[in-house]
Structures are given as C-alpha cells and as structure tokens.
C-alpha cells in the first residue's frame, strides 16, 4: 500500500468515483472535481491510499476558521469495503495530521455518527479526539443507502493535534492499552438489553450528576439501519436526547470503549475544565 497527496484532475476524478462506490448507488452529495481542485490549491489536504495503481481510500479536508484561528475541516474519510478493517483510516488521519502540523495548525475537526461504534473507537481510542458538540440532522435527509432515511445527527470531533494526550494515543498500541480505570467510577446513563440479534436501549437516567458518566451504544448500527430501521430510529432519538442534555450541562465525551463480544460500546463523558483529558 502506498500513500500520496492527490493533485491532478485525473486523481480528483478517481476520488469522485470512489465516493460513489463507498457511499452507494444514488448518492448525490459527492464532492466534485472543481471543488477538490480549488480547495487543494488553497490549503486543502487530499491524500490517497493506493494498491498498485488502484485508489482504495482517501481523506479530504478543507481550510477552515474557528474562533479567528486557521484550522482544517475534514469533510471525508472513505475506505472501500474490502479494506475497511485494514487500518487505512488511521493511517490516512495520521498523514493528514502531519500535513496540518507542517502548516502550523492546532486543530482538525470533522463530524461522525455517534452511533457508529467502529468510528468512535478510531476517533477516541486511536486518535484522541474530544467531543462537546452534537448537531441534529446536520446534513438533512441523505440519499446514501448507508443512512437508510435515519436523521444525520453527528458529533463534532475536535482533534487537537499538538496536545500531549493526542501524541500519547497515537504512540500507544491502542488495541492493547487498557483504560478501564477511567470508567471504574463512572455512572451509567443508560442500560441495554437484547432485542433479537440487536441491543436496545432499555432505560435512561438523565438525572445523574456524577463527575464521570458512561453512555452505551450498540455495535452494527449500519446493519441495523438496513434491517431494523424502526429500532435504529429509536436509538437515534434516545441518544439525541441523552447527548444534547448532557452536553448542555457541561459534559464532554473524552473516550470510547468498544466491547464487540457484548455487542456494545461506551462513551466516557466528564464534567471538567476544557483542557482536561483522560489519563492515557
């Protein structure tokens, strides 16, 4: 596998084709060649992963401003299905970070679905993001088959790429690092119970006011949207209520723990100063 910055119109056309391939037939929200070309010329980052001459994954971010400071807004990270568990997402994000550091930047942001456990694991456990913003149906109704009519609610991930916490997470073998001490004293906001082959949200307690809270989510949410859309919508509405309530009360998500055998994952939320991060 090789990686390189994409800079030609032919390469941009490959990215557009890969967008359609990854997000499925009927997906109309592709970033077109002219936008890729202009943003790359003015500080955007577009990196591709190749197997031989074949583009199999890419990451794309554009210049942005937040609180009067230059940042990068990472709009897309796409990997074709056969390579989705090969670690290419992490590799591309680290290369994106290298480019942003060379620009003197401190922050890269992006949105992702908080009910996608695999993405949460990458973002928190392997990259070290934090989250304190929840956006409801931010992209409106999506034409992608991946979303199946479910509202496009999203977390806004903040990746403070110069922070020691981020450097430690990147350096660690995250799949082997045990961080269970972080949730030993955390109170559970919701409980899950089996619902056939899925897990459902059985109870929710929003009256908790502990320093540390955990919020559990199911694994396999993409399949759930396809095969059990009513349950997926119930999950969306339940977690929307949980996260919007807790973020408004000063909590922020600082970690995620994936438990595939149990069919669930858990976010760790803390009420703390803005620069606080969990121990690594």
Overview of this structure, please?
The chain has 280 residues and is α+β, with helices and mostly antiparallel strands. It has helices at 9-23, 33-41, 88-102, 117-127, 164-171, 221-227, 229-248, and strands at 2-5, 45-51, 54-66, 69-79, 107-112, 130-135, 154-160, 187-188, 190-195, 198-204, 212-218, 251-259, 264-271. Helices cover 30% and strands 33% of the residues. The strands form 3 sheets. Strands 1-2-3-4-5-7-6 form a 7-stranded mixed beta sheet. A 4-stranded mixed beta sheet has the order 8-11-13-12. A hairpin with a 4-residue loop joins β12 (251-259) and β13.
Taken from the alpha-carbon principal axes, the silhouette is globular
**Would you count the extended β strands for me?**
13
Structural class: alpha+beta
Major pleated sheet: 7 strands, mixed
Q: Give the helices and strands as they follow along the chain.
A: EHHEEEHEHEEHEEEEHHEE
Radius of gyration: 19 Å
What's the rounded overall pLDDT mean? 90
The span between the termini is: 30 Å
Low-confidence stretches are 174-178
| Spatial ordering of strands, largest sheet | 1-2-3-4-5-7-6
β-sheet strand percentage:
25-35%
> How is the quaternary structure best described?
single chain
Helix content: 25-40%
Question: Helical stretch count?
Answer: 7
Please give a quick description of this structure.
This protein is an alpha+beta fold and 280 residues long. The protein has helices at residues 9-23, 33-41, 88-102, 117-127, 164-171, 221-227, 229-248; strands spanning 2-5, 45-51, 54-66, 69-79, 107-112, 130-135, 154-160, 187-188, 190-195, 198-204, 212-218, 251-259, 264-271. The strands form three sheets. It has a seven-stranded mixed sheet. The chain has a four-stranded mixed sheet with strand order 8-11-13-12. A two-stranded antiparallel ribbon has the order 9-10.
């Amino acid at each position: 596998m090789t990686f390189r910055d994409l800079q030609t119109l032919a390469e941009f056309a490959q990215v557009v084709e890969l967008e359609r391939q990854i997000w499925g037939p009927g997906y109309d929200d592709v970033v077109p060649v002219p936008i890729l070309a202009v943003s790359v010329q003015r500080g955007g980052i577009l990196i591709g992963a190749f197997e031989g001459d074949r583009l199999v994954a890419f990451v794309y971010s554009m210049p942005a401003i937040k609180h009067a400071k230059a940042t990068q807004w990472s709009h897309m990270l796409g990997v074709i299905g056969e390579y989705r568990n090969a670690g290419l997402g992490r590799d591309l994000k680290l290369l994106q970070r290298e480019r942003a550091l060379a620009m003197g930047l401190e922050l890269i942001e992006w949105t992702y679905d908080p009910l996608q456990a695999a993405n949460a694991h990458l973002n928190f456990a392997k990259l070290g993001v934090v989250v304190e913003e929840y956006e409801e149906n931010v992209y409106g109704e999506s034409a992608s088959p991946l979303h199946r009519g479910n509202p496009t609610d999203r977390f806004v991930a903040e990746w403070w790429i110069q922070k020691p916490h981020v450097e430690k997470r990147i350096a660690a073998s995250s799949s082997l690092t045990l961080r269970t001490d972080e949730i030993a004293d955390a109170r559970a906001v919701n409980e899950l119970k089996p619902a056939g082959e899925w897990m459902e949200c059985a109870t929710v307690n929003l009256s908790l006011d502990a320093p540390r809270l955990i919020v559990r989510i199911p694994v396999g949410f993409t399949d759930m949207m396809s095969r059990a859309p009513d349950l997926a919508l119930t999950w969306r509405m339940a977690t929307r209520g949980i996260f919007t309530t807790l973020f408004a009360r000063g909590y922020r998500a600082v970690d995620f723990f994936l438990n595939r055998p149990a069919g669930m994952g858990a976010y760790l939320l803390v009420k703390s100063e803005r620069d606080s991060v969990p121990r690594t």
